[in-house]
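Work package 3, deliverable 3.1, input record:
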Amino acid sequence: MDPRRLLVFREVARAGSLTAAARALGWTQPAVSQHLAALERSVGLPLVLRGPTGTSLTEAGEVLLRRADAVAAELHAAEEELASLAQLRAGRVRLHCFPSAAATLVPEAVRALATSHPGISVGLVEAEPPEALAAVGAGDADLALVFGYDAEPVGLGSLVWRPLLTEPVHLVLPPAGTVSSLDELAGADWIGGCERCRVHLVDCCREAGFEPALRHETDDYVVVQNLVARGLGVTALPESALTAYRHPEVRVLEEPALGHRVVGVAHRPGADQVPATAALLRELVTVVGGG
Amino acid sequence: MDPRRLLVFREVARAGSLTAAARALGWTQPAVSQHLAALERSVGLPLVLRGPTGTSLTEAGEVLLRRADAVAAELHAAEEELASLAQLRAGRVRLHCFPSAAATLVPEAVRALATSHPGISVGLVEAEPPEALAAVGAGDADLALVFGYDAEPVGLGSLVWRPLLTEPVHLVLPPAGTVSSLDELAGADWIGGCERCRVHLVDCCREAGFEPALRHETDDYVVVQNLVARGLGVTALPESALTAYRHPEVRVLEEPALGHRVVGVAHRPGADQVPATAALLRELVTVVGGG
DNA sequence: CGGACCCATAAGCCACACTTGGGTCATGGA
DNA sequence: TCCATGACCCAAGTGTGGCTTATGGGTCCG
């Protein structure tokens, strides 16, 4: 049973005649007649009795009309719901992001979205880049706010990568000292951050000619700076971590050899066409400063 | 939003990929791709995210899928209901018929229908021919069992007329007497039946050269025969009324001058294609004796 | 790096579906 | 009675939507 013909039948029942239904549909009368005849042929029952003064429904027609009304109601409701999503009156966007982004960039963007479009619900999950990317790939999240060192993050798979900002990585040193570059820290005690940061740090040190001795490990940039301030070691931190929190006693040194951290979002292809996702993306771009 | 495309989308969501949906539909992959693209264009939102390993639904897709499932369920239920009607497992037929038909012909036919198709409910209303025809014309009944004298009943309008039987009208006389034809009854007291029977009787008498004196009026053929048996008058009755009930003391005389009564059914054009109506029609034809 | 699996796009072609035109039937007014 | 109106159906012409074939891009896996 062709549902389009069902709706034509419904219009006939509503209008009370084939001609009137045709007018309502913007068609000619034979078009309606043919549709109705085809529908009746397909169900094997007359649905409408044609009289000179108009039409009346058979029992089968009355039964079918109730179903047709239900179908039309579903279609109408579907259009309403989709319009709400399209106009950002409703919707959901799930963002997985790494900890230091959650501290600064993300709250601003989410706040802006909540203000401009209160119907959108934002789901926020703190996750390291590999887990965030996996969640997006599995459909458990819409956006992954992730980073890579001097390159796109690994494990993107078929996801689309959109860089947001590139920031330098700085040396973080105790207040007292005369060190001014990486290669002077071959013998220092090092504090490692998250796994990926650690790997990058080790890579940079090897490039500089030594193997760093990792004494402590924490991915909390506040803890790290406290450790450094007490003279328990040295470390490297990306600029945004130092913007989010800067211990007053640590010494920060620009060191090009530590490279850059690239921060951006990843999403499934086409997901940036989903209004709620696109809206949050726009806000993130705005927060980091323009297009 | 084209509901056929909605069902294509539903199949995509169910199958998990465009290619699999195409297989299920017996189409090629581009056909599904085009339908889905058209649907997404019409709603202005992506519904399905295409990945190399298959597809996943967007939020809009999930919303729409629920509606599509509801639509599909309605369509399926409609087909079930219509199949019940087509196979006479369910249905309704409303018959309006004149009194003496209700006494004999109709009970047999209804009984036969109830036995062979217990799911069919028959609604029976006793009504004089003009009212019965009006009810059918107004859609308040499916069949009108009516009669006319020597012709189709008047007031058929656009209804279809199907004669069932033709029966002679006989003279009904008191047991004692020597009368043997109509023209000998110019001076008799007459008993009139229903309005239409009375009109026919008067016409026949005038044809025979006199104006009948109508002393009594009743449309009950049992009452009529009792009046005649007591010698209170004479009358004319169609054969079936005498078959239904025959007072042992009245004398029945064949009188060609009284003409014939034609009994048949009327229905709206096309109504004989409605299974329940057609079934009762068949039973009526069977009861009166064949095709 | 080639093969297998997704998908999208372009071009071709058929058939469906809508239009046009003509005809029947019943109703209503002059 | 005659015509006008409005209902429907039927038949034939035509345009376009929609399916197919063919091709190419992309990811994942061996």
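Chain B has eleven helices and eleven strands.
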